[in-house]
Amino acid sequence: MFRRIAIALTLVVTFATSGSPMWAQSTAPTDDDLKVTLLGTGTPTFNIRRFGFANLVQAGGMNIMIDSGRGAGIRLFQAGVSPGAIEAIFLTHLHSDHITGLPDILATGYLGWKLIGGRKSGLNIYGPKGTAEMSRGLSMFFAADSAIRSADEGLKAEAMGVNAVEIEAGLVFEKNGLRVTAFPVNHGEKIKSAFGYRIDYNGHSVVFSGDTKYDEKVVANAKGADLLIHEFAASPQDMLDDPVYQKILDHHTTPREAGKVFAESAAKLVVFSHQGLLPGKNGLPSWDEVVAQVRESYTGELVIGEDLMQFQIGQGGRTILMKGAEWPR
Questions:
Q1: Which of 52, 74, 196, 296: CA 20 to 30 A from 104?
Q2: Annotated domain spans of the chain
Q3: How far apart are CA 170 and CA 189, in angstroms?
């Protein structure tokens, strides 16, 4: 069921008074709408409230995903979408927290029960160099399972395969009016390649930064976008000298840098996901601290993403929904 408005509103940091998106308990999307669901807003840490980074985009009668982190299949089910109904998955990069949900999407998706499976052809996975090798590993991992189910349940081999496409920057997918464009981002000197994605449909757009340091290519691709979903990492002052934390922060965008991206891109709505709040001696950085750093350069609309938060973008504007369980706090 949808969360009550009072709860959902606590997740909004600041909205301008004009042109702000509408919060709603229910709305019927049309064929012209672009709908985005945050399946997971977390990081490699174990967090029952924030599953691994994953996103569902629905448009043109299709379901596609950007990344597939831990628990993505469960979140899909909660969002009312069968893993077997996924048209394609686009990977930003091959770090574990962005791909650990893939085995579940693959193997559950080929089961015969349409409520959770029903896929009739191989799972389409697009990603950077290494995606093909990873996909072969997935097929090997489930070789025994697929052979047993083929013999016992009559499942077809083509439904249990993986179609891997290793991409370069540029237009990587176009179908039913939905366009997916990949652009390189800077996730660190040794992480090649890492991508962000821009998705365009019916005059509307959503941009996913992927894991990245401050990068002008994110700014350029998010210019005027309806929705920008961006990562960040933040550390308490008492841990800034820790070498492990320094390495993490050197691969991600700080809240101050994110504010600069938001201001320069002029995206209509920005959302924090892949939320890297690093613990210090006195706990995690507070959201007040994070937001204050963003506000040094950005005064527009900012939302703290939550798992199963949905954004519906259409001719009537933007609607934000919360759907799912009431998480323990």
A1: 196
A2: 5-322
A3: 21
CB 213 within 8 A of CB 223: no
Architecture of the 5-322 domain? 4-Layer Sandwich (3.60)
First to last CA, the chain: 18
Instruction: Note the pLDDT tens digit of each residue in 182-197.
Output: 999 999 888 889 999 9
Report the candidate in 94, 270, 55, 97 with the shortest Cα–Cα distance to residue 188: 94
Q: What share of the chain is helix, strand, coil (3-state, %, to 5)?
A: 25, 30, 45
Tokens in use for 50? 């924030």
pLDDT tens figures, 286-327: 999 999 999 999 999 999 999 999 999 988 777 888 654 433
Pick from 87, 76, 38: which is nearest to 307 by CA?
A: 38
Distance, in Å, from the CA atom of 222 to the CA atom of 265, rounded to the nearest integer, reads 6
Tokens 């990344």 belong to residue: 67
**162 three-state secondary structure:** strand
Give pTM, 2 decimals.
0.90
